[in-house]
Amino acid sequence: MEELTELADDRALLGRTSTAERVSDILRSRIAEGFFPPGTRLSEDSIGGALGVSRNTLREAFRLLTHERLLVHELNRGVFVRVLTVEDVEDIYRTRSLVECAVVRGLGSPPYAVEGIAGAVSDGRLAAREGDWKGVSTANIHFHRELVALAGSARTDELMRSVFAELRLAFHVVDDPQRLHEPYLARNHEILQALRAGDRDGAERLLAAYLDDSLEGLLGVYARRVTDGGEGAG
User: Are residues 151 and 104 in contact, defined by beta-carbon separation less than 8 angstroms?
Assistant: First the structure.
C-alpha cells in the first residue's frame, strides 16, 4: 500500500534508539495530518513492519496514544483512531478557552514575543492563496500553539499539544475545510495586531469570541457528519 510505503520513510526518524515514545511521536503526527483518519483500524503487522519495530514496542506506543485519547482499543476488534463525540469537541473547546485566554490574560508588560505567531499567520495566508486548506488548518493549529507558548510553560505546552492533536481528529471529519478555516485567517491577524500593539485585554476579548464562534461553526457540521456519515469506531 502507498500509505505504508510512506510510513516506512519515517523509519529513519527512529534512529538507533528506537523507543515507544518515538514511535508514538511519529504516529501522533501522522494522525494529526490525517494519514490515519478517524475510525481507521491500525494494523500491528503492517505498521510494525513499515517502521521496523517490535510488536511490544508498537503496542506500548498504542497504549500511550490511547492514554492521550487519540486511539481507542476495542475488545476482539483491535486499535482504532478515535472518533470524537460532540461532547468531546465541546470539552476540547472548554479547555482551550480556559487555557488560551488565561495565557493571554497573564501576559506581562509588552512588547510580546510574537514572531512565532506572525509566522503562523503568514503560513496560513500562503496556504490559502494556494488553495491548500489542510495547510491552512495546520497553520491555524501552529498559531494557537505559538499563542500558548507565550506563557513560557513546558507543562502548558505539553497539555495543549495533546488537546490540539485531539482537535484535529474533529477537523478531519469535516468535508468542507475551506468553509471551516477561512474565516479565521483574518481573525488570527487581528489577534496578532492586538498583541503587537500591547493590547492584552483586546487580544483576550478577540480570542474569547473567536473560540466561541469556532466551536459553534464546527459543531454545526461535525454533529451532522458523525451522525450521517457513519464514522467508524470510537
Answer: no
pTM, whole model, 2 decimals?
0.84
CB-count burial class (<10 Å; 0-12, 13-18, 19+) for 85: middle
DSSP-derived 3-state class of residue 127 = helix
C-alpha cell belonging to residue 171: 477537523
The total of other beta-carbon atoms located within 10 Å of residue 133's CB is: 19
Q: Can you tell me the distance from the alpha carbon of 15 to that of 212, in angstroms, rounded to the nearest whole number?
A: 43
- Cβ-proximal residues to 113 (8 Å cutoff; 6+ apart), any chain: 150
Strands (E), 31-151: 41-42, 71-74, 78-81
Those residues whose C-beta lies under 8 Å from the C-beta of residue 201, and which sit 6 or more positions away, are none
- Do the Cβ atoms of 7 and 30 come closer than 8 Å? yes
Q: What is the pLDDT along the chain (234 residues), one digit of tens a residue?
A: 666 777 777 766 665 445 888 899 999 999 988 899 999 999 999 999 999 989 999 999 999 999 999 999 998 899 999 999 999 999 999 999 999 999 999 999 999 999 999 999 999 999 999 999 989 999 999 999 999 999 999 999 999 999 999 999 999 888 888 988 999 999 999 999 999 999 999 999 999 999 999 999 999 888 887 766 544 444
- What cell was used for 211? 473560540
Distance (Å, whole) CA 161 – CA 170: 15
CA-closest candidate to residue 134, choices 177, 194, 100: 177
